User: Which sequence fits this backbone?
């Protein structure tokens, strides 16, 4: 069952200092949650640098802007199964698409900061999954 | 900010209405306060945050609940803004034209009711997305192809009702619609076409039934709430060959369109193909700052650098052939020979493309109906992630295409934006979709965009070009350009509106159609 749920997002001002990014990235992870993914846009040197610096013990996942393959290949199913905390240094559309996709199946909390013209540093947490949640095609039935 | 109330509705009456909605659908499916955030326009243009804001949202799970909701809305006079999945993001998303409306979120009604492989159709509810239907076809091994627009998360029904287009031979989605079920504003349920006959078995096979054909009245309109819709699906072809032809000069578009018209009219070009501009295609895999750091449109020298780097043209024609290989071979020979007359034209198949990501590799999936989100990449071109489409329709002639291109690109560049456009090829017309990408966090860019867009609408109309679809902020402006014979069409729409929805509770302002009590001071 798809459900539209509240997306809580905060956007900080443009071009935040790296020190602030590092502080945010080092913030404690809530109990019971681990960083499920750390995405970085490998087309940008700054994203590569920040991924190396901020991903901690999470193996960073390289992307090139488009979320389609990651979502349909793995992430869509995985995010249905359990709460997740994800971080990323990506373009805005990757963050936007991920947030919208997740919000169709979970409660989403998101924070995002803009690093430069192209890149955003963000955190998304999902929670309160519905038991028995399915994608709509699984609800197939024949017309009475 | 507090969520706004619609005109003439008190806070108490709104609260009573929401209480009633909660009784109908369950309180957990009525969203208020901060919960309405996901119903805001994600790409706002207006700098007035009070515009286009829903008061609340309600999400029914059945036709019966929709009926009860509209009856309650009629009793209280609270306006509803129905959305299928609310993913129509370049056109306002789930946000209403009239602030204070209650979004009627149909995404819980997401059943695929029937897929018929023999006849090639599906019957779906509003909440079924392209991803959903594609996954269903794949999981069940059905030899049917979807036709998808660029964002795969949108509603199959919603896109067709908004006259959306895709890229296979079934690219005109409303043309491929067959049979509807509609809840009217008084709560009555109507089935159109053959669906009006009890026991019929051709509801999704024959569009017209008997008597007036009314399905079009429920597209881009506010005359009813569509709760089921048939959509024709393409049988999986025996062969498939996507291709791309690139052209080097801006002015080539005139000759290209002249060559293309007879090929499309004769179905040599089989699909709803597109000719895309340099920057639009470049933005799928790169951003502006990787090539140019100054403000203002990119200069020609930078355009040439992008062309060389990405092995694309100033214009890029992506098409595909479908059918048995001998037929594909024959059609390709005709197409190649026709476009070879354009100096500098280059011809590619996917196996010729080595760079990743690559525009043809991406489009090759879209043209066989694989739903994706790849096109959102172009929102990153200038940073800031906002976009809007300006989409006038013109005849398929080189003169019109070049004239439109010069008009629109000139204005867009004058206002400091890069031209990112595509020509979507119908049988006899072009949708010239110009995407204007802007920084949604920059109030000055939003102000410039609004000024530019209004100017584009007026200038296009002065030349006889009308938009086929638009963002909620420009629905009145666009409707105002369809004003032949003293606004006769709009007056007819208003007559229908007053007859079907006398209290004006369904989507006030949709496509410029306002109910009587909100019509004062507006055109016609």
Assistant:
């Amino acid at each position: 069952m798809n459900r539209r749920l509240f997306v809580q997002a905060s956007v900080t001002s443009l071009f935040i200092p790296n020190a602030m990014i590092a502080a945010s990235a080092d913030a404690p992870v809530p109990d019971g949650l681990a960083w499920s993914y750390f995405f970085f846009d490998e087309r940008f040197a700054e994203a590569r640098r920040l991924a190396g610096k901020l991903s901690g013990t999470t193996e960073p996942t390289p992307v090139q802007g488009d979320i389609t393959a990651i979502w349909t290949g793995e992430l869509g199913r995985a995010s249905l199964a359990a709460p997740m905390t994800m971080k990323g240094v990506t373009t805005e559309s990757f963050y936007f698409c991920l947030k919208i996709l997740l919000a169709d199946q979970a409660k989403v909390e998101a924070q995002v900061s803009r690093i430069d013209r192209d890149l955003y540093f963000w955190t998304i947490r999902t929670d309160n999954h519905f038991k028995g949640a399915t994608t709509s095609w699984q609800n197939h039935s024949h017309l009475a | 900010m507090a969520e706004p109330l619609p005109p003439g509705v008190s806070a108490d009456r709104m609260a009573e209405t929401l209480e009633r909605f909660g009784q109908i659908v369950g309180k957990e499916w009525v969203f208020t306060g901060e919960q309405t955030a996901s119903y805001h326009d994600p790409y706002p243009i207006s700098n007035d945050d009070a515009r286009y804001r829903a008061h609340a949202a309600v999400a029914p799970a059945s036709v019966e609940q929709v009926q009860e909701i509209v009856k309650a809305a009629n009793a209280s006079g609270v306006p509803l803004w129905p959305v299928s999945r609310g993913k129509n993001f370049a056109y306002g998303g789930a946000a209403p034209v009239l602030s204070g409306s209650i979004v009627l979120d149909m995404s819980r009604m997401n059943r695929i009711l029937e897929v018929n492989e023999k006849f090639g159709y599906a019957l779906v509810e509003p909440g079924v997305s392209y991803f959903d239907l594609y996954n269903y076809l794949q999981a069940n091994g059905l030899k049917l192809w979807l036709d998808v627009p660029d964002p795969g998360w949108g509603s199959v029904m919603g896109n067709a009702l908004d006259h959306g287009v895709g890229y296979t031979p079934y690219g005109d989605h409303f043309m491929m619609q067959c049979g509807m079920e509609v809840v009217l504003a008084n709560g009555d349920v109507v089935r159109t076409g053959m669906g009006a006959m009890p026991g019929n078995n051709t509801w999704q096979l024959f569009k017209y039934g008997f008597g007036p054909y009314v399905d079009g009245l429920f597209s881009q309109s506010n005359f009813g709430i569509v709760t089921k819709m048939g959509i024709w699906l393409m049988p999986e072809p025996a062969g498939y060959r996507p291709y791309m032809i690139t052209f080097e000069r801006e002015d080539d578009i005139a000759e290209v369109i002249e060559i293309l018209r007879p090929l499309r009219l004769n179905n040599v070009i089989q699909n709803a193909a597109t000719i895309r501009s340099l920057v639009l295609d470049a933005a799928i895999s790169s951003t502006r700052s990787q090539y140019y750091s100054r403000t203002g449109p990119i200069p020609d020298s930078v355009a040439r650098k992008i062309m060389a780097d990405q092995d694309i043209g100033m214009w890029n024609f992506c098409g595909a052939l479908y059918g048995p290989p001998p037929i594909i071979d024959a059609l390709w020979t005709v197409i190649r020979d026709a476009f070879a007359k354009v100096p500098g034209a280059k011809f590619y198949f996917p196996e010729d493309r080595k760079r990743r990501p690559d525009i043809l590799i991406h489009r090759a999936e879209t043209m066989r109906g694989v739903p994706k989100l790849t096109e959102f990449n172009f929102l990153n071109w200038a940073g800031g992630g906002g976009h809007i489409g300006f989409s006038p329709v013109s005849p398929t002639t080189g003169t019109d295409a070049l004239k439109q291109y010069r008009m629109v690109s000139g204005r867009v560049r004058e206002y400091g934006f890069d031209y990112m456009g595509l020509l979507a090829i119908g049988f006899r017309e072009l949708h010239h979709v110009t995407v204007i990408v802007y920084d949604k966090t920059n109030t000055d860019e939003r102000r410039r965009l609004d000024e530019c867009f209004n100017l584009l609408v007026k200038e296009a109309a002065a030349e006889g070009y009308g938009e086929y679809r638009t963002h909620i902020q420009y629905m009145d402006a666009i409707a105002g350009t369809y004003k032949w014979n003293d606004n006769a069409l709009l007056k007819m729409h208003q007559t229908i509106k007053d007859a079907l929805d006398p209290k004006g509770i369904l989507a006030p302002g949709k496509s410029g159609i306002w109910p009587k009590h909100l019509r004062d001071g507006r055109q016609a």
About this structure: The first strand of chain A starts at residue 7 and ends at 11. Strands of chain A lie at 7-11, 35-41, 60-63, 85-90, 107-114, 120-127.
